[in-house]
Amino acid sequence: MRTISASLKRDARLVRQAATALAARTRVERGGVLSLNQTAVLGRLATHGAMTPGEMAGQLRTQPQSLTRTFAALESFGHIRRTPDPTDGRQYLLMITPAGSKALREEMAPRDAWLAYAMATVLAPDERDLLLAASALLQRLADFEPGGAVVER
Question: Of 114, 75, 67, 120, whose CA–CA distance to 95 is shortest?
Fold first, then answer.
């Protein structure tokens, strides 16, 4: 069993609040063509490559059934394609298409432009370096899958 101190919980809350606020702020700058779910699916496929609907749902922390309409819409737009899974004939793999990659880039461009402008305006060069280092740490935290019990103290 792991215990978590009150001060670490407070620090965790501050990091979560800041990350949540930044994510919400960048979403305001979205291109607006894709839904948030569509953007999430395309982003995962662009980053991690082909995967089954179940793997996608697992990565997005949801049920495959809740993504059915999202997959269908993306396929109808030509942003993803489904191919048979070579290791399991009962499954299929989702793959991003060149059109899907283009749509994702266009969706993310306003967010990235806003954040780059904000970083250039608000942060000193050494602070930007620190933020870039912190981004790798945030990604490690986002990828963490806990094992075992956590005891609050």
Answer: 75
Strands, E assignment, the chain: 2-4, 80-85, 88-96, 150-152
Is residue 64 classed exposed, middle or buried when 0-12, 13-18 and 19+ CB atoms within 10 A define those classes?
A: middle
Looking at residue 93, which CATH number applies to its domain? 1.10.10.10
pTM (2 decimals)?
0.84
Whether 27 contacts 20, CB under 8 Å: no
Mind listing the pLDDT tens digit for each residue in 83-142? 998 888 889 999 999 999 999 999 999 999 999 999 999 999 999 999 999 999 999 998
- Judge whether 94 and 45 are in contact, CB under 8 Å: yes
Give the integer Cα–Cα distance in Å for 47 and 43: 6
Tell me which residue range forms the domain holding 56: 33-97
- How many structural domains compose the chain? 1
